Structures are given as structure tokens and as C-alpha cells.
Protein: Cytoplasmic tRNA 2-thiolation protein 1
Organism: Gigaspora rosea
Amino acid sequence: MVRLCVICNKERAIVKRPKTGQQVCRECFYYVFETEIHNTITDNKLFKKGDKVAIAASGGKDSTVFAYVMKLLNQRYQYGLDLFLLSIDEGITGYRDDSLETVKRNQQQYDLPLKIVSYSELYGWSMDQIVKEVGLKNNCTFCGVFRRQALDRGAVILDVDHIVTGHNADDIAETVLMNILRGDIARLPRCTEICTTGDGSIRRSKLFKYTYEKEIVMYAYFKKLDYFSTECIYSPNAYRGHVRTFIKDLESIRPSAIIDIIHSGEAFEIKEGVKLPVQGVCKRCGYMSSNELCKACMLLEGLNRGLPKLGIGKIFK
Ligand code: SF4
Ligand code: ZN
Ligand code: ZN
């Protein structure tokens, strides 16, 4: 018996939505996927007409789908946004150089201006050089701290009001769990916020906050989008990997686990008396920081003095 789409009741259902279990046709899948993101934007009043918005683009599936959907929604609902692609070149030979080629093709396909900023030009170190110094244990700490700042610096160069990133629901659930497992309660409220303010007044939003990774993969597959799917060659971030596997296992038993973890993270309240970091600016580079030196400057100090563990120790002591 042919099963009909539960939304339009006309077409044959060919997709079981990982997020809800609904059996839907292809067109209705596109429609609900896109509309959920549109609703996230409007419910949270994230943009106003004329905003300049940088889409963080890595060439991977999340950011490629994200750029495609942003462009489509901007036209369909006339948000009036000025969209840009902003890419970070971490300097990882055999990975980022290839994925940046995908971003350059996306630039042509979506007809959006592209700016690439590199770790080498910003920090004087590429990830290839950093890995030579620190090995494969703490490399992702360096890379994550540097990327956050690099995006803000790229946004300043582009003179945009807003950076939007393709972090999906699975990523956010992972971050909630990692913060709990590390006892890093101070970060919990911020990691589930849909919109935060980065350096200066540039806002940063995660519009895929409620979008499941599996649905992003399906969307990219059905739409035949051009994305890069190779893993970073320096990716053995064992701890996050275990958390990721744990969440995938939970999802296979109960798909709502991902959204439930996010909702739990949103509902956490920090009890009175817990000391939270006070935001100031880094005395060396002027970037926002709750210490005298920002994390990137601390890590750079360690690298430049030939003592890379120095920065790591200071951050996580
Ligand atoms: Fe950077 Fe680690 Fe991601 Fe590779 S896996 S891009 S080193 S954060
Ligand atoms: Zn349908
Ligand atoms: Zn600094």
C-alpha cells in the first residue's frame, strides 16, 4: 500500500523525518525544514531590514545547506538582508584548502560575496604549524579559540552586523553535555542562547539550533548541494567524539533526546553565589575577555615562547 504524506495527503511519502518520525513527501520535507528555520528567525526577531549578515562558511554540509537556505529565505520572505560568506582558513593542508575550493564554488552558485581570513595572517601560525608544536592532543582547543576570534575579526573587516553559523541541534546538545561533564556551569546559559553578542556589537546566531543533523544531510542530498564531506585530518578530539557517539546512541533509541538536552540546557538556572566571569577586554589585542589576556593571546604567548602548554594550563586550571 502506498503511504501518503501526512502533511499534504496527496503525494507519496518518501521520507521519515528523523526529528519527528513524520512520513512526508519530498516537497513537504523541504517546506517544513525551511519553515522551521524561518520561524526560528522570526520568533526570535533576529534580523531587521538592511542588516549585513555574514554566513560562516566552511564548505561542509551544515554551512552549505545553511547558505543555500539563508539565500532562499531572504528572497522568499523579503528579509532585506545583505548576505556575505565568511570563511576561515586554519591552514590545514589536505583539508581546509580543499574545502575552501567548495566554498569558492558555493560563492559562484549562490552569487554571494566571499571573504576568507587565515590564522597565518591573524596569528602568525597555521594549524599545520601548531600541530607540529603541540601534537594531536590539544590542537582543537587552539583551533576553536582562534576560530571564534577570527570570525569576529572577519566580520569587522566585512563591516557586518551579524554572524550566523551552521551549528545544528546535535552540536548544541553535545556542547551542553560537554559543559556539564566538565563542570563548566558558567558556560551553560550561553551555549544554548540562540543569539549572543561577540566582540563589539556584532551579534552571532545559531539558526540551525533546532535543526537535526540527519535532516541537514537529507536536505543536502535531495537538493544535490555541492559540499565537502572529508573529516579534518587533525580531528581526533576524543572527548567530544565520545559525547557525540553517546548522543547518536540516545537519538537512535529516542529521537527527541537531542531537543530534550537542548531544552534542559535552556532551563538551567545558576544558583545565587556562583561566581561568573566578568567581561572586560584583553589588554594586548582589545578582544573581549574576562582575564587580563584573552584566550587567543594566552595561547599565542605559549606558542611564541615555545611553551604551548602554558596557554592550555592557564585556560583550564
Ligand atoms: Fe580545527 Fe580540530 Fe576542527 Fe580540525 S577538528 S578544524 S583542528 S577544531
Ligand atoms: Zn507532502
Ligand atoms: Zn587578546
